[in-house]
Write the structure tokens for this entry.
Amino acid sequence: MPNADKTPLTRDQLIENLNEDLAREYQAIIAYVNYSQVLKGAAYMNIANELAIHATEELTHALKISNAIDYLGGMPTVKPKPVKTSEKAEEMLRFDLDNEKETIRQYRRRLKQAEELNEYALSETIRTILIDEQDHLVSLATALGTDPPQPGIAD
Ligand SMILES: [Fe+2]
Ligand SMILES: [Fe+2]
């Protein structure tokens, strides 16, 4: 049921939100390309290989979200959100973990917004992306020796 105390979501707002998601995917691609090569230390070699795989998965997401934006009649952005750099392995993994958490929060909301506009194919696409993002979250948390955080859902 649409939220009664909010004005209904428009197609343009959904396009705008998806462009934010796309900017986050570009950010993730750049971060994973960089960190997978810069990460040093025997303890981190497994996760470095995983980060390289994440990079290719994020590229697939970027293509899917760009396709959705184009389908909805929007212009896919070419601007990534800012990428942080570090020399410290643990810091890099922490940045990635925080970004994945935010990405999941946002896609959980986007899925509901797609359904609000009866865009069920898009919500299905977002579900498949969410499977990857949760997998990324878990592998980063595991590499950091922590439990995966609870992302919740964006407003
Ligand atoms: Fe992604
Ligand atoms: Fe991810």
Summary: Residues 11-38 form the longest helix (28 residues). The mean pLDDT is 95. The chain has four helices and no strands.
